[in-house]
Write a structure and sequence with these properties.
Helices cover about 30% and strands about 25% of the residues. By secondary structure, it is an alpha+beta fold. An 8-stranded mixed sheet has the order 1-2-4-3-5-8-6-7, with helices on both faces. A 4-stranded antiparallel sheet has the order 14-13-16-17, with no helix packed on it. The protein is globular, with a radius of gyration of 23 Å. The structure holds zinc ion. The site of zinc ion has 6 residues, from helix 5. Zinc ion binds next to helix 5.
Length: about 425
């Protein structure tokens, strides 16, 4: 099925300014160090909030403050401040699309013997943190600026997290609050180290970006990652999105993980060309960065966030089992049909799904990374593929609006069967 481009998404991509992203990266570098123990962090907070407030009166900007006590990587009591800007949506206001990065920075000081000296690290050695993660913050600000000029079906949330370097602290606090309040999140696009395209080993990769997503293979984060690849490459054809089916890089962490762990679909954008000599040192600076690369990553983010914010919610493909061994549990609405040899798929609309024009059924081999086939089913809630075994392939379904904006795919996943009834009936001799 040919897909048309939505002019509203095209506009976002076109309006992202490399110059503005460069200016933000340079400005954040100018605060010296943005370790939360330092005055640089305070100055950066005020400046980021002021920028967000200047973009549009419709952008609701707040400072989420949390008191943190001495311990772990905090060498004294201090305040952790996430900067959050909310752009309320129209028909799907309760659904949120989050674009995030972290504004704090850190230059690691080691003790003799290579253990980190957190006391010395906190006392403000020069940490420009331009690629890590002024670049991600610049992506957040630029998308907030461009997207706040327009209206979207879903609510957009732009976040600059604090204290990522102290153990994902800001994002953990945000994820806890979001879970507690029952926030509905359709996607988190977290940007961390997206500001350089030349790696320490000499690798130069300016037209590709990695997107990390945690398991399970058909969970929300993975589905969001596939969505970003499809939509991002459609609207930004010069960029290739390399999906990494893994939570993150070895021994490293990011703010997408607490959100993923809280049950929200969340992924991480990161350069293909990491420079370990610069990261967490005084040379992660503007001169070693590439604002044009960060701008291209912002365009991929913009395409995905805009399409997701316009699209209806993904269909519901499970229901609660009324009887049998799975009673009370969620089971996929998938059966072998009346013949016993077909694939019969059913789905339902979540409440507040927004205006849906129709549904697309997708299929792939269980071993295939990406969806391989799709059928436009129309404005129905059931579709049968005659003679197709439900056991041998993966099926999914997505909802589409009248302009062709699709939701991420909801996949029919094999539930873990419970055979405890049979086990209990067997008596030990
Ligand atoms: Zn980082």
């Amino acid at each position: 099925m040919a897909v048309s481009l939505d002019p509203r998404v095209t506009k976002v991509v076109a309006e992202i300014s490399t110059g503005r992203i460069a200016a933000t990266m340079k400005k954040l570098e100018g605060f010296g160090t943005r370790n939360p123990h330092t005055p640089g962090a305070e100055a950066a907070r005020a400046w980021i909030a002021e920028q967000l407030r200047s973009y549009s009166p419709r952008l609701e900007v707040r400072l989420d403050k949390h008191a943190a006590t001495k311990g772990g990587r905090f060498v004294r009591d201090l305040e952790i401040v996430n900067i959050v800007a909310v752009l309320p949506g129209k028909s799907e206001k309760a659904r949120h699309v989050i674009v995030s990065g972290h504004y704090d920075s850190m230059a690691l000081v080691r003790k003799p013997g290579a253990a980190t000296d957190w006391e010395a690290t906190a006392s403000a050695p020069h940490a420009p943190g331009v690629s890590d993660d002024a670049s991600g913050t610049a992506v957040v600000l630029e998308l907030a600026r461009v997207m706040s000029q327009y209206e979207w079906e879903k609510t957009l949330v732009f976040i600059a997290f604090d204290a990522e370097e102290e153990g994902l602290v800001g994002s953990k606090l945000y994820a806890e609050d979001a879970k507690k309040t029952g926030m509905i999140v359709d996607g988190v696009l977290n940007n961390d180290i997206v500001g350089n395209d030349v790696g320490g080993g000499g690798k130069n990769e300016s037209a590709r970006v990695r997107v990390f997503s945690d398991d399970p293979p058909d969970g929300g984060s993975r589905s969001l990652a596939r969505y970003i690849k499809e939509v991002g490459e459609r609207y930004v054809p010069s960029m290739t999105v390399d999906l990494i089916f893994r939570a993150d890089r070895f021994t490293r962490g990011g703010d997408h993980t607490p959100l993923n762990d809280a049950g929200f679909p969340a992924v991480r954008f990161t350069t293909e060309a990491e420079n370990y000599q610069n990261q967490h040192t005084a040379t992660d600076n503007f001169d070693n960065s590439s604002p044009s690369y960060a701008a291209n990553v912002a365009r991929v983010n913009g395409a995905a966030a805009a399409a997701l914010a316009l699209a209806p919610a993904a269909p519901e493909v499970t229901r609660e089992a009324a009887a049998g061994a799975m009673k009370g549990r969620r089971v996929p609405m998938l059966s072998r049909g009346e013949s016993g040899y077909d694939a019969d798929l059913k789905w339902a609309d979540p409440k507040d799904a927004g205006p849906v024009a129709g549904y697309v059924v997708t299929m792939r081999a269980t071993t295939a990374p990406y969806w391989q086939k799709e059928w436009y089913a129309g404005a129905v809630h059931e579709y049968t593929l005659a003679g197709v075994s439900i056991d041998d392939v993966v099926f999914g379904v997505k909802s589409v609006d009248k302009d062709g904006n699709a939701s991420p795919v909801s996949a029919y996943v094999l539930p873990r069967m419970i055979f405890e009834g049979a086990a209990a009936a067997v008596q030990k001799k």
